[in-house]
Write a structure and sequence with these properties.
There is one protein chain. The protein has 296 residues and is α+β, with helices and mostly antiparallel strands. A hairpin with an 8-residue loop joins β7 and β8. 40% of the residues lie in helices and 20% in strands. Bound molecules: iron/sulfur cluster (2 copies). The site of one iron/sulfur cluster has 11 residues, from loops.
Length: 296
Amino acid sequence: MPATKFQCRDGSTVPIKECLQHCPNGQRCMFLPTLRSVAESLNRKLDKPSVTELIAGTRETYLKRTQHYAVDPMQQLYALHGSAVHTIQEGHNEGNIITEERLADDITSGKFDLYGQIVDLSDSTLGDYKVTSSYKLMKALGYYKVDVPTGEVYKTGLKKGQPKTRKEWRTDGVRHLLDWAIQLNYYRILLEEAGFKVKDMVIQALCRDYSLRMAAERNITRPLYLIRINKISDRWIKRYMAAKAMRLKKALKENRLPDKCSVRERWKGRKCESYCDVAEFCPFGRLMKRAANRAA
Ligand code: SF4
Ligand code: SF4
């Protein structure tokens, strides 16, 4: 079931329907049409789990499908940003470009953002919009820092005699973007099964905190990056997604809470502590939140 409540700034929760009629907190936290758009964006009714639902941890998706959970409308604005980009570009997709089609197979369904002549003369590029943080971008681009000797040595203090170093950026690191790669590759498979050839997969990533000093400290120097996605074997992706779909289906049928999300799916615990909308229904999430609150 989709989110049914909004989490207000003061930590209280209000049924979305009630919020849209009247804000019990006296003054709305954002314009009513914005809240309506956020509510609308949450209201998806799909029988089959979507590609993005299957990429998330099975426990998270199970809880989102079975609990009346609350979301912070402020956090949803970033997702809305992505839809806004579509709206801004509506009417400019003429030529060999197809947008926002939902395709399905017997495992899942997915709506790709755009396909066609979007980055070069090839008319078969699959594109996806992302609005993301400078941290996620730095990781996705494979940026990392190394210590480089300056040629000088410390003359005094504890490090006396040791070489001095300075930090330098490298851009050839491991690109941490498996979720994005699985998502785009699955859209590619769906498109190819529908008879469309896909030559390239590219993400247009807009950095939402680009103007902050923190972004520059992460070597993010532009508001927008194009990131090419490599092909992953169809066989691997299909097996991976089929296994996750099966696990979710079984848990829903037996009404049984699946195992906790994997270390990668729960972002090494960061998601459980601060970013999982259903953490309050998850025993592990509650534990992580309690531990984080104690440490704060
Ligand atoms: S308008 Fe904002 S503060 Fe008021 S009920 Fe809705 S979410 Fe809460
Ligand atoms: S709190 Fe963590 S383990 Fe629990 S559902 Fe959310 S992401 Fe998964």
